[in-house]
Design brief:
By secondary structure, this protein is an alpha/beta fold. It folds into 2 domains: about 90 residues, Urease, subunit C, domain 1, CATH 2.30.40; about 300 residues, Metal-dependent hydrolases (TIM Barrel, Alpha-Beta Barrel). It has 11 helices and 21 strands. α4 links the parallel β10 and β11.
Length: about 400
């Protein structure tokens, strides 16, 4: 990775700080030693550019400065699946970083508990080797177990033979393997032992998500009262909103403590339905990719991949600007996505959602949901993960802790 001077200054930009506040026009940003030193608007950036020592000056006229995206649910990218091992985990993270994601959680599909424990231990090794989730390039925040504690009827692209009840022994084994790096676990609250598992995970600091479930609105609400704080990919792998059976989505909307994941790829959820959630739960929607290996692959790449032990086929998108649709081979079950978060933001804008709302949903909200509240914001003292977007919201440059990707 190339190194920048100790200080760099960007100026004449439009800046969104990740909090949902309106854009700051004619904005400038000063970064020193990998952290945001100051920001504002107007000409005061010149004072910082004249300081002692070497300074890089970035003219960002006509561009946006936003915090690095934080993806708390993805399974791979750049042609690599997380189940392939630590090298693949890093390769996928780097592929997503080129699209603006400067931090992510490493998701795994359902498998035997011992296999999942090995995966969690491998991610813990990577995080520790980087000096923790805020160290080195900070790309990896930890892990997410999307399985195996899921409902058979709502398993989606998870192998039914790998689903299981969350016994206390299994929970403790997984937590021990993760060594404090298990950020999130998806749990069907109807499974035997689910509420005890929820308690154990929450006590360990792991965010519990309700998902892949047939739970009613009332059962989901009970799980949230017991400590669950996320809804895994809202609308997908769960009952929808019915006027006599409102389901888990309404339970999550009703609870100010809960963050709702949304996959805004034009396939999982209609963009207008995603816009409805973003309006109904301000600051509580997290854009996620649920990406598998096909994400962040250059055009012309393969059209067949693996997700866990299952084969996935890509279908050409029906609408311009949307990624290919990933489905299980031989059927029509959606199997993750080929999405990156920059594309999700652009699709949200096309659906009429204000950019500041979408940037918040791609940065500070997901970070807060998994206990990484210091990420995904641009404020004095914050880590300088910065993405530069052009007028069309395409990624121009990514700087992680102040350094270019």
């Amino acid at each position: 990775m190339s190194r920048l001077p100790a200080r760099w200054v960007a100026h004449s930009a439009r800046l969104l700080d990740g909090t949902g506040a309106p854009a700051l026009d004619d904005a400038w940003l000063v970064v020193e030693a990998g952290r945001v030193a100051a920001l504002g608007s107007g000409d005061r950036w010149r004072e910082h550019a004249r300081g002692a020592g070497e300074v890089e000056v970035l003219d960002a006229t006509g561009r946006w400065l936003v915090p690095g995206f934080v993806d708390v649910h993805r399974h791979g990218g750049g042609g690599r699946s997380h189940e392939e091992g630590p090298d693949a985990v890093l390769a996928a993270a780097l592929a997503h970083r080129a699209h603006g994601s400067t931090a992510g959680v490493v998701s795994f599909v359902a498998d035997d508990v011992d296999v999942l424990a090995e995966h969690l231990s491998g991610v813990a090794d990577l995080v520790e080797a980087a000096g923790g989730p805020g160290g080195a390039d900070g790309l990896l925040l930890g892990s997410h177990l999307e399985g195996p504690f899921l409902a058979h009827a709502r398993r989606g692209a998870h192998d039914p033979a790998k689903l299981a009840d969350p016994t206390p022994a299994a929970v403790r084994h997984l937590l021990a393997a993760a060594r404090g790096t298990l950020r999130q676990v998806t749990l069907d609250p109807q499974r035997t032992g689910a509420h005890e598992a929820l308690r154990l995970f929450a006590q360990a600091g792991t965010a519990v998500a309700v998902g892949h479930t047939e739970a009613t609105c009332e059962q989901a609400a009970a799980a949230f009262d017991a400590g669950a704080r996320l809804l895994t990919h809202a609308f997908n792998a769960m009952p929808g909103i019915h006027h006599r059976a409102p389901g888990p989505v309404v339970a999550a909307l009703d609870d100010e403590r809960v963050v709702l994941e949304v996959i805004l790829d034009g396939h999982h959820v209609h963009p207008r339905a995603a816009a409805l959630l973003l309006t109904a739960a301000p600051g509580r929607v997290a854009l996620v990719t649920d990406a598998m290996a096909a994400a962040a692959v250059a055009p012309g790449g393969p059209d067949r991949y693996r997700l866990g032990g299952l084969e996935v086929v890509l279908q050409a998108p029906a609408e311009p600007g949307t990624p290919p649709r990933a489905v299980l081979a031989g059927g029509d079950t959606i199997a993750g996505s080929a999405l990156t978060l920059d594309v999700a933001v652009r699709l949200g804008v096309a659906a009429g959602v204000p950019l500041e709302v979408l940037v918040r949903a791609a940065t500070s909200t997901p970070a807060r949901a998994v206990g990484a509240a210091g990420r995904g914001v641009l404020a004095p003292g914050a880590r300088a993960d910065v993405v530069v977007l052009d007028e069309d919201l395409a990624v121009v440059e990514v700087r992680t802790a102040g350094s270019p990707a």
